[in-house]
Protein 1
Amino acid sequence: MDSIHNIREILKLLPHRYPFLLVDRIIESDGSLRMVGIKNVTINEAFFQGHFPEHPVMPGVLLVEALAQVGVILLFSGDENRASKLVYFSGIDKCRFRHPVIPGDQLRLEVTVLKHRGPYYKMKGEARVGNTLAAEAELSCAVVDRN
């Protein structure tokens, strides 16, 4: 699997850091409307200590956050002025959790822009493990000036 953005490039595009950085690599992109990222889920993730110690499952809210992070990378990857901007998420619709994500899984995080008007975006995200849909959601956000 080739990388379009490796972890060093992702760190330049996202403000997130451990333990909240949830994208390891970007493997596909059309440059403006669609992007696919990878998250390798390991037992060393901090959230597995409490969710749940005897039966570790990745929290659903973090699956949505991982999709949102791929969405931010999609919006910022071609933007020369990204350092002066922030992305605020304003809504999560049609969110469904279909299958548990456990240590050892590799998440494929696909995000597609559905609508764009001015600074506002609506994106669809799907998180898969292999061919199995683990989570899906529509994410709304606004790109705003940092000041």
Note: The chain has a mean pLDDT of 95.
Protein 2
Amino acid sequence: MAQTAHNSYVLMTITISVLGDSLSVEGYGLEERDTWPLQLMTMQDGCEVIVHAKGGLLASALPDDVPHNYFGKSQYLGRAINTESSIYVIMLGANDVIKGFSKDAMVCGLTRIVKQLKCCSVSIFKRTPQIVLVPVPNFIKQSGSCARLERRRRVLLLPALKDVAAKCNCAMAGDIILKAANKHNDGTHLKKSGARIIAAEVKRTLDLNKTFKSKLKPSLSISVVTPKSLKRGQAAARRMGKNVFMNLPRAAVREFASTHGIPFTGGSKEAERDCIIAKLGLKWQRVR
């Protein structure tokens, strides 16, 4: 029985990994649900945001023995690399400005992070991810140390980000200027309203680069398995056996679904397989 093609679109789930420091996590009076990555997830349909961030982390990689170097001295880059993501959003640099690192050190560290993410994503997940660089928002207090930090942010960090974006073919969000009401009283950390502004700017950048629009794909299958396809699919899966089927690579699982007319939505490999199993009515559990 031929399936009827519908001229509709299905939004695939996109995983966004956020690399950052204390500005991307809860703390200083900000709850986790109010951080900008979580607010971004509520603003953008069809996305899942996973945060790989911790207070004190640096972008700079000169010298290599910096204790909080994001590239080589923390486990957070490793976690990001091992998370299959379509987009990596990087907001680092506040601690580099505070600790007085040079522009060259920031460029070196950010370049290494971006190249590592791209290289590992292509090697492990067979995809080229989009990288978005987000400037750290302005330091608020216009006197004393905060005024000096703001000058360093503008003179060193922003040019470093622009150099890396041009060199590594990354998207870059616009400069984010917050008011005192959007910041914690230390002039650095965010309140909920400040986090919302950052989330909105990241969403604007993603929309501008058509990241989510490019994930809209025509759906050429109906959502219900036909009786004939159901019988064929069930028989083929049972002949194959649970252990073999549950350990098939993603390409083989998709080929099986296409061959037997079983529609499924995008997501992780396990989610796709579970969707196919559910549509077949099989009572199989994941093999871990």
Note: The beta strands are 8-11, 14-20, 47-53, 87-91, 130-133, 171-172, 216-219.
Protein 3
Amino acid sequence: MPIRYVYYDNEIIDFGSGVNSTIRMLPYLSQSSQGTSIDKDGSLMYLSRKVSKSTVAQLYIMNDPFNKYPGLELVHKEPDQVVEILKMQNAIPQEEDLINYRGTRGAIKIWEAKNIPEDIKVNEEFTQRDPYGDDWKFGMLDELEFRE
């Protein structure tokens, strides 16, 4: 089945047609009795249409490939220890943050909202302190609109 997007070497490749999903290629680290080996393109992460459009996928997994979040600034990054060791050995590219080694391993990243566009709405529901209080309704955030 043809997939429309591939994220590879910090770049999004759009084939122009296919299923509106994204494949994220990851290095794969394996260990055996013969030693350790790294396959630069040995693992794939499938991102469905909805997941690939999520903020987590856009920022954390693909480093904002469409520049949709210029108002967010990466203020903290704590790399995974295995990833850092591989970078020091030049076994993976310096810009790589994710690998597949006994599961997906990646950095802890924290962003801060700066230069927020004026058309972003403020929703008081996001600042509620007691989600289980009397005024909390199931699904109350489902119909929110974020831009005017």
Note: The chain has a mean pLDDT of 85.
